[in-house]
Design a protein that fits this description.
Elements lengths: L20 H21 L7 H24 L21 H19 L15 H5 L1 H8 L5 H23 L4 H28 L21 H8 L2 H26 L2 H4 L4 H8 L12 H29 L11 H27 L2 H22 L4 E2 L2 E2 H20 L4 H4 L3 H5 L2 H13 L2 E5 L9 H5 L6 H7 L13 H4 L6 E5 L19 H7 L1
Antiparallel strand pairs: 1-2, 3-4
Helix pairs in contact: 1-2, 2-6, 3-15, 6-7, 6-11, 7-11, 8-9, 9-18, 12-14, 12-15, 12-18, 13-14
Length: 529
């Protein structure tokens, strides 16, 4: 026990919680695993790469499991916010910034300088860290590892190991356990194993993560990808049709029934990593009004960019005639503009009053997209779009959105901006799902204002920066585009104030129905439900 005098009168300890001897042992095991990866990174010759890779991943996983069991199974189940604002690593202290710099540096090297990780060029053998993963890659698909295989393996291992930790932490809440198992399953099966097995069955088939939907799966509509699918007969054609259907049919239906949580909290790999490995940083998401305003403008700007760039990417390899593809440039651009116009007109007609002042911003966004598409169409040449070479333009979206924003900033800044900075500020898929959720989804989080004690656990735990307590205090339903329906706000509420529901559209948005005081006839309100 520490002999340090504590003059604080706070009911909450102002000091960081000390870790036990068993947790120190677990950290040591995990660090040995990381040391093996570091040795490989610096080209230390490891005699048996298969053995050392197994040891590295196994020790890291075992370390997380032992640490987690000691942290949570030795305590009563329930809310666990112990000391998060007092630990250096989870309160933007020295270790938090150090971890952020390390993660960001790793992503920069991964995306832009893979040769420093040991990637062999022009048929040369892999070395270093990537060479360490060759045995596993050859076992799964019969080919040497790439930087993306290394990343996918580490990514999947992190979700599985920290997913176990998350299940123990929230073992009092069945919803949290089930959805965590779901993201672990989809990451291991759909994102990691199935693409490798598909390569074994048909190595001419382009890589395809079945759970990755446009605009996250931005490469599915690129020329090399489309030609690769079409050259593989019915299977390739079926995958293209599935990609289109998942965007325009499956996604709206599931969002209508369950909200964006069906994807962002149950399926998505980005959300899976944020919920598991990033759980310790969820409270760092800013709840300021200025952050919310920045979020709304930034994420919808990214969406506009994604729509324009995807259209330009497809447009760039279409011709004036139908020699290569049955779809010509003229037909394609007219179809896109018509589709966007129908959506815009429908939203304004059916939901214009609900949008209020936001309708003006929506009209501006629509006008910008249409103007950019028309400029592209009337100024394009055979090789250039927006006065830029088409091949360079096609790579722009992948570099700036798929790499820099989602990887370098989105994950690298976990210890600084919180675990869902990508989902909140940059993910175009989240913008589309949020748009659908806000306008026509049955999902909402209901609140019982009479039971709220204003403890702030809900707001502190919201990774999307929503001030949940402000809604709970008024008894107001939470219907926000940014809400991913993770349900952690409900899981940490000591009074059962918050409840995730799928109900009818009637009474879904109730900003004037305050349950505190005598200005509402409660029986009339209940009967309306």
């Amino acid at each position: 026990m520490s002999n340090k005098l504590n003059h604080s009168m706070s009911l909450a300890s102002p000091d960081a919680f000390h870790i036990s001897t068993k947790q120190k042992f677990a950290l040591g095991i995990g660090l040995v695993g990381l040391l093996i990866l570091a040795l490989a990174l610096f080209n230390v010759n490891l005699p048996n790469t298969a053995l050392f890779l197994t040891l590295a991943l196994g020790l890291i996983t075992v370390g997380v499991i032992i640490y987690s069991r000691e942290a949570y199974l030795t305590k009563l189940e329930g809310i666990k916010n112990d000391g998060v604002w007092y630990k250096s690593i989870s309160s933007r202290g020295f270790w938090g910034w150090a971890l952020g710099i390390i993660l960001t540096s790793f992503y920069i090297v991964l995306y832009f300088f893979p040769e420093y990780l040991g990637l062999g060029k022009d048929g040369a053998a892999n070395t270093g860290l990537i060479g360490l993963f060759d045995p596993l890659s050859n076992l799964l698909s019969g080919r040497n590892a790439s930087q993306w295989f290394v990343y996918g393996t580490l990514y999947t291992n992190a979700i599985l190991a920290f997913g176990y930790k998350y299940i123990l932490k929230y073992r009092h809440n069945r919803y949290q356990q089930i959805r965590t198992v779901s993201v672990m399953f989809f990451q291991l099966g759909f994102a990691f194993l199935i693409p490798e097995f598909m390569y074994v069955m048909n190595n001419d088939l382009p890589y395809y993560d079945l759970k990755s939907i446009w605009p996250l799966n931005y490469y599915i509509f690129d020329e090399w990808s489309v030609k690769g699918f079409l050259s593989n007969g019915n299977l390739g054609l079926a995958l293209i049709i599935f990609g289109i259907a998942s965007t325009f049919i499956i996604t709206p239906i599931l969002t209508y029934k369950y909200g964006k949580r069906w994807y962002c909290s149950w399926v998505c790999g980005c959300g899976g990593l944020a919920e598991t490995a990033g759980d310790s940083f969820r409270h760092l998401s800013s709840k300021k009004l200025s952050a919310w305003k920045l979020e709304r403008w930034l994420i919808h700007t990214v969406l506009v960019f994604s729509v324009v760039m995807t259209t330009a990417m497809v447009y760039s390899y279409l011709g004036k005639d139908s020699n290569n593809f049955w779809l010509t440039r003229d037909v394609f651009i007219i179809s896109v503009i018509a589709f966007l116009t129908i959506i815009f007109a429908g939203v304004m007609y059916f939901r214009g009053k609900e949008l209020g002042k936001d309708a003006k911003a929506g009209a501006i966004g629509y006008a910008v997209v249409i103007a950019l598409l028309l400029i592209m169409h009337f100024t394009s040449t055979t090789d250039h779009l927006f006065f830029v070479k088409g091949s360079a333009l096609r790579s722009t979206y992948g570099i700036y959105i798929g790499s820099i924003f989602s990887g370098v900033i989105g994950t690298g800044f976990y210890p600084i901006l919180g675990s869902r900075s990508w989902c909140r500020f940059g993910c175009p898929m989240a913008a589309i799902l949020g748009f659908q959720q806000r306008l026509f989804s049955k999902f909402r989080i209901t609140t019982n204002g009479g039971q709220c004690i204003s403890c702030g656990n809900c707001s502190n735990s919201c990774e999307m920066g929503i001030d949940v307590r402000a809604y709970a205090q008024k008894g107001e339903n939470i219907v926000r585009s940014s809400c991913v329906g993770c349900g952690v706000c409900s899981a940490v509420c000591p009074r059962g104030v918050l409840k995730l529901e799928n109900d009818t559209m009637d009474g879904r948005i109730n900003p004037t129905e305050v349950l505190l005081g005598n200005d509402v006839d409660l029986m009339d309100f209940v009967n309306k439900k």
